[in-house]
Write a structure and sequence with these properties.
By secondary structure, this protein is mostly helical. Helix content is 59%, strand content 0%. The radius of gyration is 14 Å and the shape is globular.
């Protein structure tokens, strides 16, 4: 059984900006991607050339990932910046999506809330 993390990739500019500002959601997505990759925080930090405290600050939502540092993490986790910042998974391979969905289920209940970006509301054509 597969769980689709984000079904609607059509978001407005304001919704994208708001999603990128939600550092706790960014952290949850990083945690799920790391678990899906089968890595501990220490292993990921070492492979990406980061300190464990930098990674811990990202995962807790205390700090926003810097683009240059995040660029070293993305290929290891096999995810995109769109997924990390906005919850958009349409560019991820199916096996990565399934692994992340399974990892998300392993997160404690209080960490699961607002995991993915909310889809844009449907607008009625006039």
């Amino acid at each position: 059984m597969a769980i689709i993390v984000c079904m609607n990739a059509i978001l407005t500019g304001r919704q994208l900006e708001k999603a990128a500002q939600d550092l706790e959601a960014v952290g949850r997505r990083l945690i799920a991607a790391r678990i899906a990759a089968g890595l501990t925080p220490t292993e990921l930090a070492k492979r990406a050339g980061l300190t464990t405290s930098t990674l811990a600050n990202w995962e807790s939502g205390a700090n926003r990932p810097r683009v240059d540092q995040l660029g070293r993490v993305l290929p290891i986790l096999r995810v995109t910046s769109d997924f990390v910042f906005y919850g958009l998974d349409h560019h991820l391979s199916w096996d990565v999506r399934e692994a992340i969905a399974a990892a998300f289920e392993k997160l404690p209940e209080h960490r699961r809330s607002r995991f993915a970006a909310k889809p844009a509301p449907l607008r009625k054509s006039v």
